[in-house]
Amino acid sequence: MSFLSLFRVVLALFWIGPAAAQTGDSGARLVERFKQSKPFFAQIEVARQIISLGNADLLEDLKDMLSSEDRHARANAAFVFAGLGDIRGLETVANILQDRSYRPEGQGIGIAPGDGKYHVERQIAADRYYAVHVLGELKDARAIPILTPLLQDSEINYKAAWALGQTGDRAAIIPLIEALKITNPNVRVIAIQSLQRLQAKEALPVLHRLLEDNERSTYGAAVTVAETAKAAIAALETN
């Protein structure tokens, strides 16, 4: 190796070494911020920053969060794991969705309107809702097998329809077309919006049949199924 080549190697190591150390330090600080962050919607923003570093070594210091009593914090930790390609992330979210055990009041809405008392059933519903939200935030096709059965879950099926659209994967199209048969208009409206997002032209025949469906959504914008179908048809036939 020539002197010039050796010099270039040494120079590269000189710069890479400090940069790697800085990334590690930055990651460690973000992990600590993540552990201390509340509420959950602020914590997930820190989670995004951790994922952006692409350093799976940071997961070692986060693994205790996968068993946090606060299911919202647990879901956010799972978001980091899944975002960095660790299967424990999706497994943890799937477990939250199946978990109906007692838990103390956490984040989300565990208080019934009017009585000011804690209701574990409402806390479970809030935790499951947020777990589906995290799957949507992942924008990962690996979530589709977890989300698809939830279209039959009356508690969170409308949120599952949204999350399926967020995956950006065509494997979600058939389940979403099937969801257009569900009686809850919230599900039908959101499924249509997700199909539009996925540019699912194969859904057009079914969407045309919904142009007389005047049931109105009570989630988000109060629009009818027909109005949503009309907008989706226009978008899909134009593109």
Description:
There is one protein chain. With 239 residues, the chain is mainly alpha-helical. It has helices at residues 3-36, 40-53, 71-83, 88-98, 120-138, 144-147, 157-166, 173-179, 185-197, 204-209, 225-238. The longest helix has 34 residues, at 3-36.
Task: Write a concise synopsis of the structure shown.
By secondary structure, the protein is mostly helical.
Outline the biggest β-sheet: none
Q: Give the mean pLDDT.
A: 91
Number of strand elements: 0
Report the sheet-strand fraction. Answer: under 5%
Note the gap between the termini: 57 Å
**Residue ranges: pLDDT <50 for 5 or more in a row?**
1-22
What sort of overall outline do the alpha carbons produce when their principal axes are compared?
globular
Structural class: mainly alpha
Give the C-alpha Rg: 22 Å
Q: H/E element string?
A: HHHHHHHHHHH
Q: Please count the helical segments.
A: 11
Helical percentage: 55-70%
Which terms summarize this structure?
single chain; globular; disordered N terminus
Furnish the topology, listing elements before pairings.
Layout: H1 3-36, H2 40-53, H3 71-83, H4 88-98, H5 120-138, H6 144-147, H7 157-166, H8 173-179, H9 185-197, H10 204-209, H11 225-238
